[in-house]
Amino acid sequence: MNETARIGRKHPRRIPARQGIAAEMVAGQTATILNTHGKQVVDTWAFNAADMSEVMSMEHSRTAMLKIAPQVGDTFVTNRRRAILTLVADTTPGVHDTLIAACDTYRYRDLGAGADHANCTNNLHAALAAIGRKAAEVPSPLNLFMNVPVGADGTLEFRPPTSEAGQYVSFRAEMDLVIVFSACPQDVTSVNGMEPTDAHFLID
Amino acid sequence: MNETARIGRKHPRRIPARQGIAAEMVAGQTATILNTHGKQVVDTWAFNAADMSEVMSMEHSRTAMLKIAPQVGDTFVTNRRRAILTLVADTTPGVHDTLIAACDTYRYRDLGAGADHANCTNNLHAALAAIGRKAAEVPSPLNLFMNVPVGADGTLEFRPPTSEAGQYVSFRAEMDLVIVFSACPQDVTSVNGMEPTDAHFLID
């Protein structure tokens, strides 16, 4: 049985379009995030389960990895420079983003979409509240499948994901942690191919 | 009288080598940061003076600027996507960093330099405490003069600054704010040319 078939048999949980969901992981478990329809960005955060002030940090992880985006084998670290998640599989072309903030009320106001537009920052807070957790801050997210190429002159551009339906990434938990996913509701720029959809995840 | 002479006559304040310093700015004032000896990185943070939970955010600023580093005319924004600092002058070659976390106790422990090594994170807290202020979190800093080129393959490299003695950058305050500078004490990697030195700043 190949890996995709294995995942299919395990009944992944749904990350509903435009919404967030949080889950607990024990060290050594694997989280697999499926880009079910291919073009959905999934904002991802991780917190030390024993101390929510210790957070997966993009700026500390870039320093540790000496890369702007992870490749299989790379480990994300916390704001205390401890290993938290290792990328152990990636069936996509490997395009993910660590540079861009989670969308929020202010972003959609600025884009003219109205301040009541669903957003990843509110999704983070709601998803944590649903499992009785709370974040002290909103860390810069790991934007799975998000395609923001850096030009030779340092300019950034928002483009649709390069991933295809059913492709996935898997992370090993390096500590007991809380992981949060938000199926990004961005429908003003092309980061989700203009059509926010469900995604799925599996912890095993 | 040229600009450098003007700054020289105004008696800039010292940012002592390996230390931090904080100052208040009123909207419309200009902060000029001089790389006195040429190769010193200055980690820089800004906070809304009326609400220290509103912070200059590198991840929100990259989204707003669509660049990984600022050029003259670019405006940094807060975690509420409001303008906070605009780069109005830059006599250096324009190489600054927004990707790398401030150094901290954990960084020097990992580098084998000992956990009691001076670091920019502790400098931030100490500098704010010295003016009766407190940060709820440690935002990702604006690393002035820091040279961390992004390769075509997304890899990062730590190199010495490209700036020369006496070169400077100037920022206009877009709101009443608290600004904090740390003359980075990093002497294990080459980011400060291996020799941390004083820098200077002027607010007028």
Automatic annotation (TrEMBL), chains A, B:
<protein>
    <submittedName>
        <fullName>Urea carboxylase-associated family protein</fullName>
    </submittedName>
</protein>
<dbReference type="Pfam" id="PF09347">
    <property type="entry name" value="DUF1989"/>
</dbReference>
<feature type="domain" description="DUF1989">
    <location>
        <begin position="14"/>
        <end position="178"/>
    </location>
</feature>
<dbReference type="InterPro" id="IPR018959">
    <property type="entry name" value="DUF1989"/>
</dbReference>
